[in-house]
Structures are given as C-alpha cells and as structure tokens.
Please model this.
Amino acid sequence: MKIIKAYLVILVCFGLLACDANTGKSDFEVYISNYDWNQNALSATSRADKGGSGVMLQAYNWNSCKLGKSWWKTVKSNSSMIKDKFEYVWFPPVSNSGSDNGYLPRQLNDLNSAYGSASDLIAAINSVKSEYTKPIADIVINHRVGTTSWGDFTNPTWGNVKKVSYYTICNNDEGFSNSNADMYGCSARGGADTGASYGSGRDLDHTNGTVQNGIVDWLKNYIIASGFEGYRYDFVKGFSGNYVGMYNNRTDAAFSVGEYWPTDNFSCQSPSSWSTQIRDWIISTSMNGKNINHSRAFDFVLKGMMNTVFGSKNGTSNGNYNLLASNYNLYKVYPGYAVTFVDNHDTGSTQSLWPLDSEDLAAAYAFILTHPGIPCVAWQHYFTASQSGDIGSQYAGGNSVNSQGETLHSMIDKLISLRKNAEISDLSSVELMNVAGNIYRAKVLGKNSTVIVNLGRVLAAPDGYSLYVSGDDFAVFTEDIPSEI
Model:
C-alpha cells in the first residue's frame, strides 16, 4: 500500500490525475483498472515485427469510393511512384459493404466493391507489391451488417438464421431491442461484447468459435490469397485486443496496426489518458499473454499534439513545440509499436473531422518522416487531384512548400530518401537540443548518419551540417560527408 501511495504522489506531481471525460475516473484509476499486472510491459527498444525502417502510404481517401468504381485502377496507374518506395501500402476495406467506403462490411467473401472489381483489386495489389513493398488490408471485424435486414448475414452466414438465431452477434446489440429489426426479441444470441458498442452495425461476438474461425478463413482465403501481407484493424476499441493477437498469429500476418482513437475530443487533459489507453491496448494484443504478435497502433497522442502545435482547421497559430517531445507520445515510449501520421481518411480528406492546419503540412511531415515510429503518408498529401482522377482542394501533393517551388510531393520523396540513406528506423534515438514553446530542435541518430530537425524558430546549420530541405518554420540538416583524400 505504501508503494501505491508513493506512486500516486508521483502521478499527482506530473499531472496524471486528470479526469477521464468518458468514465469520470482519474487517469490513475483507469490505469490501475486496465493494466494487467501479470503481463510484462513492452520494451521501448523492441518492435512489433521484423520491419521498421520504412514508410507507410494510405492508398486512398474518403472520396476514393465515389469515383465510379475506378479506384483500384487509379492505384495501379500510380504504382511506379509507390512500389519500392513505401514499405507498407494501406488499402481501404475490400469487401462488399453497406456503405460505399467499406466500413459496414456485408458480404465478406465478395471482393467487388465501390472501389472496383475483384480482378482490378488483385491487379492493383500486384502492381505495388515487391520484396520491399507490402500491401496492407483495412480489416473491419468489429461489426457486420445484414443483407436484407439487420442481422441476416450472407456470404458467409456464420450460422445466422433470419428471425431464428444470431449466436455470432453480441447479446446487447441494438438489433435485439429495436422492433424494426429482424433480430428483435430473439433469445438465440451471442455472448457479451468485449469492447465498445458500434450502433451502425451488428457487434460481432469474438468469443464465439464460429466468428473466430470465420474471420481466420476469410483472412486466409480472400485477404491473404489476394496478395495482402498484413492488416490495419478498424475500430479496435470495439473488441478485446487479444483477438487481434490471435488473428495475427493464426494467419502469420507480417504487419498489423490498430486504430485506437480514444475519444473525439483532445484537450490538455487528454495526453496521459490517451497514452495509457493505447499502450494498454497494444499490450493486450499479445495473444493471451504470450509475448508474440503484438500489434502496432496509430499514434493518436502525437496527432493531438501536432494539431495543438500547428493548429487545426487554420484555427490557431504555431506554438507549444515542446509538446512534440512529450513522453506521452507513443513514438517516445513505444517507438517500435507506433505508426505516426499527419492526417487520415477520417481526420482529414473530405470528411475533415480533425485536420491539421493545411499551411503546416510540410513541417509536420518533416517531423514524422525523420523520427522514430512508422510514418504514414496520406494519399491526398502525396498525389494531385488529376493523379487521383478527382477534383477538390484536399489534394496537396502539388502545393509549393518553399520559395524554391518545391512541392509537398517532392519534399516527401526527399525525406523518404533521407530516412533510407541515414537508416532512420522506428527505433532510432532522438537527442533533444533545444525544445521550448517556440522551437523544437533535435538530433535523430540513424545507423548511417545523424539528422537535425528544426521546427518553429529556425536556427542556422551547426558546424558539420548542411541544409537539406526547408520551408516556413522548419528545416532539416544533414551531416557533411568528408571528401576522400
């Protein structure tokens, strides 16, 4: 008890007793209630898989499903700019869905979708796949929707019989209490949900062997058989993380990352709570306590910090650069398990739920592409509207980022090359040089060379370094290579 009290005092001193907006509990109480004390914490010097040196591309945005079932052809047409440059290429959900974007999966075994035909999908996968580049599928397994009503699953049925039995659906799903649903009042239902509920679809009972085997069969015979090598798990708050570990293990996934977005709101009280929740989820993906197949997770803490530093929706000016060095950021505490990002299909794109200030995209990418973790580049920040077969202002790939007319696309290319040449990985060390409210300056130690990243108040290149790329409020410096005598 004395140890717990002492720990409590430390948490108070460091501001870790902020109230969690969802539960009303302090961060300390949430931490104690969620943490599995019988399980070893992950090492900050370990990683989730054998990769770790490359960069991910999110190969779609929120508008991609609205372009006349042509998206797979668009990916293929841009494959020369993707293959062998990005280590991971994240595709959207590929199955028949109740929504064009794919996030309400209906017939899992039908790979014809609003993005294009199954044959075009396989052609797109093969066009980017190489010994270096691994296609990653967006996996939505928290929920499904019925074919003609709420819970009548087809292709596969998983044993559901309309108006008779729904053992693969969690027993507290909304469909059992809604008089308009085919499931209404049916007592033949599954077990309790192991995570948060999702009202737009039927919550799947992952404790059910039929669900487990059905998901594994689908992953093996449709997802991996199509050429995918790993997964991006959607809405992982909706079911226990150890099932992610199980599915990774049973299908030999080469890579996985989970979308654990704690809440829709981020404030000064959020970082500690968010960091704890995401880290606890990563630990829970260990396959029933075995230290194998942990999943990575998106660094939503760093996303919140960057939106605070750079501004969201052009709402604030730059400042608080010290937040980028916070130990709450996932890339700081578990770098081998962090996937960092500036925006994705939810936070940015046309959905624009939580976008970064568009004027600071270049500075944000200069940060994540030179730092630990696996950086993820958004399609709309790398390509132009014409390259995407689309129109709209979200496409920033051709936007100028400095007085030399360098585009965001070409700057990202340069930073990816720098990351490879310097051998900066997810586990690279960072030495802080000058961090305050108006400046972030740090050395990133790659295996081959050291890089200096400077955001905010930009200082001159130190002796032995030269300017590599710069723009408004940011600069990246590289080590000078001595000439041979």
In short: Residues 68 and 114 are 7 Å apart (CA to CA). DSSP finds twelve helices and 17 strands in the chain.
